[in-house]
Design brief:
single chain; alpha/beta; Rossmann fold; globular; Sec_Metab_Biosynth_Oxidored; SDR_fam; NAD(P)-bd_dom_sf
Protein backbone atom coordinates (compact mmCIF):
# COMPACT_ATOMS: atom_id res chain seq x y z
CA UNK A 1 0.00 0.00 0.00
CA UNK A 2 1.31 3.44 -0.90
CA UNK A 3 1.78 6.08 1.77
CA UNK A 4 0.85 9.59 0.59
CA UNK A 5 1.68 12.61 2.75
CA UNK A 6 -0.17 15.87 1.95
CA UNK A 7 0.58 19.16 3.67
CA UNK A 8 -2.28 21.63 3.63
CA UNK A 9 -4.46 18.57 3.28
CA UNK A 10 -7.64 19.88 4.89
CA UNK A 11 -8.40 22.66 2.40
CA UNK A 12 -8.58 23.33 -1.33
CA UNK A 13 -6.29 21.29 -3.55
CA UNK A 14 -4.72 19.46 -0.62
CA UNK A 15 -8.11 18.20 0.54
CA UNK A 16 -9.03 17.20 -3.03
CA UNK A 17 -5.86 15.11 -3.23
CA UNK A 18 -6.44 13.53 0.17
CA UNK A 19 -9.98 12.49 -0.81
CA UNK A 20 -8.79 11.09 -4.13
CA UNK A 21 -5.98 8.95 -2.70
CA UNK A 22 -8.13 7.65 0.15
CA UNK A 23 -10.77 6.59 -2.36
CA UNK A 24 -7.99 4.98 -4.44
CA UNK A 25 -7.06 2.75 -1.51
CA UNK A 26 -3.88 4.48 -0.37
CA UNK A 27 -2.74 5.32 3.13
CA UNK A 28 -2.92 9.11 3.48
CA UNK A 29 -1.36 11.35 6.12
CA UNK A 30 -3.17 14.69 6.12
CA UNK A 31 -1.19 17.55 7.63
CA UNK A 32 -3.14 20.63 8.67
CA UNK A 33 -4.33 22.74 11.55
CA UNK A 34 -8.04 21.89 11.77
CA UNK A 35 -9.17 18.53 13.10
CA UNK A 36 -12.77 19.46 12.32
CA UNK A 37 -11.94 19.95 8.63
CA UNK A 38 -10.12 16.61 8.57
CA UNK A 39 -13.13 14.88 10.12
CA UNK A 40 -15.38 16.34 7.42
CA UNK A 41 -12.93 15.28 4.71
CA UNK A 42 -12.75 11.76 6.11
CA UNK A 43 -16.52 11.47 6.32
CA UNK A 44 -16.76 12.29 2.60
CA UNK A 45 -13.93 9.93 1.64
CA UNK A 46 -15.27 7.09 3.76
CA UNK A 47 -18.78 7.25 2.30
CA UNK A 48 -19.25 3.72 0.99
CA UNK A 49 -15.74 2.67 2.02
CA UNK A 50 -15.30 2.28 5.80
CA UNK A 51 -11.68 1.16 5.27
CA UNK A 52 -10.74 4.78 4.52
CA UNK A 53 -10.92 5.58 8.22
CA UNK A 54 -8.21 3.03 8.99
CA UNK A 55 -6.02 4.34 6.17
CA UNK A 56 -6.16 8.03 7.13
CA UNK A 57 -4.22 9.93 9.75
CA UNK A 58 -4.45 13.56 10.77
CA UNK A 59 -1.17 15.16 11.85
CA UNK A 60 -1.70 18.60 13.35
CA UNK A 61 1.10 21.04 12.57
CA UNK A 62 1.73 24.73 12.02
CA UNK A 63 4.30 24.71 9.25
CA UNK A 64 5.24 28.33 9.83
CA UNK A 65 7.02 26.88 12.88
CA UNK A 66 10.35 25.16 12.28
CA UNK A 67 9.92 23.29 15.57
CA UNK A 68 6.54 21.94 14.45
CA UNK A 69 8.01 20.90 11.10
CA UNK A 70 10.81 18.99 12.83
CA UNK A 71 8.34 17.38 15.22
CA UNK A 72 6.28 16.25 12.24
CA UNK A 73 9.34 14.71 10.57
CA UNK A 74 10.15 12.75 13.72
CA UNK A 75 6.56 11.52 13.95
CA UNK A 76 6.52 10.30 10.36
CA UNK A 77 9.91 8.62 10.69
CA UNK A 78 8.70 6.83 13.82
CA UNK A 79 5.37 5.58 12.45
CA UNK A 80 5.99 4.89 8.76
CA UNK A 81 8.42 2.67 6.85
CA UNK A 82 8.20 4.53 3.55
CA UNK A 83 6.69 7.61 1.92
CA UNK A 84 5.74 7.09 -1.72
CA UNK A 85 4.55 10.63 -2.36
CA UNK A 86 5.05 13.89 -0.51
CA UNK A 87 2.77 16.67 -1.74
CA UNK A 88 3.69 20.10 -0.39
CA UNK A 89 0.48 22.12 -0.67
CA UNK A 90 0.24 24.11 2.57
CA UNK A 91 -0.56 27.78 2.01
CA UNK A 92 -1.30 30.89 4.03
CA UNK A 93 -0.82 34.05 1.99
CA UNK A 94 0.50 37.13 3.77
CA UNK A 95 0.83 40.42 1.92
CA UNK A 96 2.79 41.98 4.76
CA UNK A 97 5.89 40.81 6.56
CA UNK A 98 5.07 38.87 9.71
CA UNK A 99 7.45 37.56 12.38
CA UNK A 100 6.53 34.31 14.16
CA UNK A 101 6.92 33.53 17.86
CA UNK A 102 10.18 31.82 16.90
CA UNK A 103 11.50 35.13 15.59
CA UNK A 104 11.45 34.31 11.86
CA UNK A 105 9.58 35.68 8.85
CA UNK A 106 6.45 33.56 8.55
CA UNK A 107 6.17 33.20 4.78
CA UNK A 108 9.82 32.21 4.36
CA UNK A 109 9.37 29.46 6.95
CA UNK A 110 6.04 28.20 5.63
CA UNK A 111 6.83 28.29 1.94
CA UNK A 112 10.46 27.19 2.02
CA UNK A 113 12.04 26.26 5.35
CA UNK A 114 9.29 23.78 6.33
CA UNK A 115 9.51 22.20 2.87
CA UNK A 116 13.29 21.91 3.15
CA UNK A 117 12.94 20.24 6.57
CA UNK A 118 10.32 17.80 5.30
CA UNK A 119 12.09 16.88 2.06
CA UNK A 120 15.49 16.41 3.66
CA UNK A 121 14.15 14.91 6.90
CA UNK A 122 12.05 12.32 5.05
CA UNK A 123 14.76 11.39 2.54
CA UNK A 124 15.18 7.95 4.12
CA UNK A 125 11.47 7.19 3.87
CA UNK A 126 11.41 8.39 0.26
CA UNK A 127 14.42 6.19 -0.58
CA UNK A 128 12.55 3.23 0.92
CA UNK A 129 9.69 3.67 -1.58
CA UNK A 130 9.78 2.00 -4.96
CA UNK A 131 8.96 5.07 -7.08
CA UNK A 132 9.13 8.15 -4.81
CA UNK A 133 7.80 11.53 -5.85
CA UNK A 134 7.73 15.01 -4.33
CA UNK A 135 5.22 17.47 -5.77
CA UNK A 136 5.94 21.01 -4.60
CA UNK A 137 3.13 23.47 -5.33
CA UNK A 138 5.55 26.38 -5.70
CA UNK A 139 4.72 27.95 -9.05
CA UNK A 140 7.81 27.51 -11.26
CA UNK A 141 9.45 30.15 -13.39
CA UNK A 142 10.95 32.66 -10.94
CA UNK A 143 14.10 34.46 -12.04
CA UNK A 144 17.35 32.64 -11.37
CA UNK A 145 18.58 35.64 -9.35
CA UNK A 146 15.40 36.04 -7.26
CA UNK A 147 17.04 35.03 -3.95
CA UNK A 148 18.64 37.65 -1.70
CA UNK A 149 21.22 35.47 0.03
CA UNK A 150 22.26 38.39 2.20
CA UNK A 151 18.75 38.88 3.60
CA UNK A 152 16.72 35.69 3.16
CA UNK A 153 14.01 36.86 5.58
CA UNK A 154 13.74 40.22 3.80
CA UNK A 155 14.22 42.45 6.81
CA UNK A 156 14.92 45.31 4.39
CA UNK A 157 12.60 46.32 1.57
CA UNK A 158 10.03 43.54 1.98
CA UNK A 159 7.37 43.29 -0.71
CA UNK A 160 4.92 40.52 -1.40
CA UNK A 161 6.24 40.14 -4.95
CA UNK A 162 9.85 39.84 -3.81
CA UNK A 163 8.97 37.37 -1.08
CA UNK A 164 6.92 35.26 -3.47
CA UNK A 165 9.62 35.14 -6.14
CA UNK A 166 12.31 34.23 -3.62
CA UNK A 167 10.29 31.34 -2.17
CA UNK A 168 9.50 29.99 -5.63
CA UNK A 169 13.12 30.05 -6.75
CA UNK A 170 14.28 28.48 -3.48
CA UNK A 171 11.86 25.59 -3.99
CA UNK A 172 13.18 24.99 -7.49
CA UNK A 173 16.69 24.75 -6.00
CA UNK A 174 15.38 22.42 -3.28
CA UNK A 175 14.86 19.95 -6.11
CA UNK A 176 18.63 19.94 -6.69
CA UNK A 177 19.18 18.84 -3.09
CA UNK A 178 16.26 16.41 -3.09
CA UNK A 179 17.21 14.48 -6.21
CA UNK A 180 20.82 14.29 -5.08
CA UNK A 181 19.75 12.84 -1.71
CA UNK A 182 17.19 10.40 -3.13
CA UNK A 183 18.36 8.75 -6.36
CA UNK A 184 15.42 8.02 -8.65
CA UNK A 185 13.23 10.66 -7.00
CA UNK A 186 10.73 12.53 -9.17
CA UNK A 187 10.70 16.15 -7.99
CA UNK A 188 7.99 18.27 -9.60
CA UNK A 189 7.69 22.03 -9.10
CA UNK A 190 4.08 22.70 -10.00
CA UNK A 191 1.52 25.47 -10.24
CA UNK A 192 -2.11 25.37 -11.39
CA UNK A 193 -2.87 26.40 -14.96
CA UNK A 194 -5.23 29.10 -13.73
CA UNK A 195 -7.01 30.37 -10.64
CA UNK A 196 -8.39 27.71 -8.29
CA UNK A 197 -11.54 28.21 -6.26
CA UNK A 198 -10.55 28.06 -2.63
CA UNK A 199 -10.90 29.86 0.66
CA UNK A 200 -7.67 31.82 0.00
CA UNK A 201 -6.53 31.47 3.59
CA UNK A 202 -4.28 34.27 4.64
CA UNK A 203 -3.77 37.84 5.75
CA UNK A 204 -4.92 39.50 2.56
CA UNK A 205 -5.38 43.10 1.60
CA UNK A 206 -8.77 44.38 0.46
CA UNK A 207 -7.79 44.31 -3.22
CA UNK A 208 -6.69 40.68 -3.19
CA UNK A 209 -9.75 39.61 -1.19
CA UNK A 210 -12.07 41.36 -3.62
CA UNK A 211 -10.31 39.89 -6.67
CA UNK A 212 -10.48 36.38 -5.23
CA UNK A 213 -14.16 36.74 -4.32
CA UNK A 214 -15.10 38.04 -7.76
CA UNK A 215 -12.83 36.03 -10.07
CA UNK A 216 -12.89 32.71 -8.23
CA UNK A 217 -16.51 31.79 -9.02
CA UNK A 218 -16.24 33.20 -12.55
CA UNK A 219 -13.01 31.71 -13.90
CA UNK A 220 -11.60 29.54 -11.13
CA UNK A 221 -11.13 25.79 -11.45
CA UNK A 222 -12.64 23.38 -8.96
CA UNK A 223 -9.87 21.95 -6.74
CA UNK A 224 -10.76 18.41 -7.89
CA UNK A 225 -10.13 19.46 -11.50
CA UNK A 226 -6.99 21.47 -10.76
CA UNK A 227 -5.19 18.56 -9.07
CA UNK A 228 -5.59 16.03 -11.89
CA UNK A 229 -2.02 16.61 -13.15
CA UNK A 230 -0.68 16.03 -9.62
CA UNK A 231 -2.50 12.70 -9.46
CA UNK A 232 -0.79 11.76 -12.71
CA UNK A 233 2.66 12.68 -11.32
CA UNK A 234 2.06 10.50 -8.26
CA UNK A 235 0.68 7.55 -10.21
CA UNK A 236 3.38 7.62 -12.90
CA UNK A 237 6.44 9.45 -11.53
CA UNK A 238 9.27 10.35 -13.88
CA UNK A 239 12.65 10.45 -12.07
CA UNK A 240 14.50 13.75 -11.98
CA UNK A 241 13.45 17.40 -11.72
CA UNK A 242 10.63 18.89 -13.76
CA UNK A 243 8.36 21.92 -13.80
CA UNK A 244 4.70 22.23 -14.82
CA UNK A 245 1.84 24.69 -14.98
CA UNK A 246 -1.23 22.48 -14.89
CA UNK A 247 -0.47 19.65 -17.31
CA UNK A 248 1.90 21.76 -19.43
CA UNK A 249 5.58 21.03 -18.98
CA UNK A 250 7.89 24.02 -18.68
CA UNK A 251 11.65 24.33 -19.05
CA UNK A 252 13.53 24.38 -15.76
CA UNK A 253 15.00 27.72 -14.78
CA UNK A 254 18.75 27.28 -14.90
CA UNK A 255 21.07 29.70 -13.13
CA UNK A 256 24.79 30.14 -13.53
CA UNK A 257 25.56 28.29 -10.28
CA UNK A 258 22.52 26.28 -9.19
CA UNK A 259 24.49 23.63 -7.26
CA UNK A 260 26.27 26.27 -5.21
CA UNK A 261 23.08 28.25 -4.64
CA UNK A 262 21.27 25.11 -3.45
CA UNK A 263 24.13 24.40 -1.04
CA UNK A 264 23.97 27.98 0.24
CA UNK A 265 20.27 27.58 0.99
CA UNK A 266 20.89 24.32 2.85
CA UNK A 267 23.66 25.93 4.90
CA UNK A 268 21.47 28.92 5.72
CA UNK A 269 18.60 26.74 6.98
CA UNK A 270 20.89 24.56 9.07
CA UNK A 271 22.53 27.64 10.60
CA UNK A 272 19.41 29.76 11.11
CA UNK A 273 17.13 26.94 12.26
CA UNK A 274 19.28 24.61 14.38
CA UNK A 275 17.65 21.44 15.63
CA UNK A 276 16.91 21.71 19.34
Amino acid sequence: MRTIVVTGGTDGMGAALARHFLKAGDRVVVIGRSRAKFDALLAAAADGDPSATARAEFAAADLSSAADSRRLVKHLRTHYEHVDALVLAASFIRQRRHVTSEGHEASWVLFFVSKYLLVTGLAGLLRAAGRPVVVNTAVPGARADAIDFGDLELTRGYTFAKSNAQQRRANELLGVLATRGVPGLAYVTWGPARLVRSGFAGDLGKGMKTAAAVLGPLVGQRPDDAVRPIIGFVDAPSPGRSAYRGARKLPLTVGTDDERDAARLAEAVENDFPDG
